[in-house]
Amino acid sequence: MESGTLLAGRTRDRIDAMTYEEFNAFCGALPATTHVIQWVGSHVWKVGGKVFAIGGWSEAEPRFTFKASDVSFEVLKEQPSLRPAPYLASRGLKWIQHHAAPGLSDQELRAYICRSHAIVAQGLSRKRQAELGLLTI
Asked: Which segments of the chain are extended strands (E)?
């Protein structure tokens, strides 16, 4: 999902929006992941000890944060209900936060979380990737 698949001006309701339970189940199904609760009850998902996705900060409307490629970051940061992730993006990191409706569809969100997992995993040393069973050569 390198180029944005979001539709400008989309008005789709988020009645079917991803829950924290669905987020955790999805992230837990990705290879070599670990889950911790930190930062005031946030669901933090890691691969090789490095964060790739965060769910938290609001029970009323779930918020999801993920690492993005340079291209995706530039596209997504301008979309309604998405923004550069507070704290992370202010330090020059390419992280996006999905924070309100309409935002991404669940399918789009899952695709970006998968890509975030891949970006973070690829940043690990080859030795660490091998230890985690992430090398696909």
From this structure: 33-38, 42-47, 50-55, 64-67, 82-84, 95-98
Which tokens belong to 34? 């670990």
Give the tens place of pLDDT for each residue, 96-114: 999 888 889 999 999 999 9
Q: Take residue 3 and report the two structure tokens written for it.
A: 């180029």
Tokens for 28, please give them: 């837990």
- So where are the chain's domains? 20-131
Task: Look up the pTM and report it.
Answer: 0.85
CA 68 to chain CA mean position, Å: 8
Architecture of the domain defined by 20-131: Alpha-Beta Complex (3.90)
7-38 pLDDT tens trace:
333 334 444 689 999 999 999 999 999 999 99
How many H helices and E strands in the chain? 4, 6
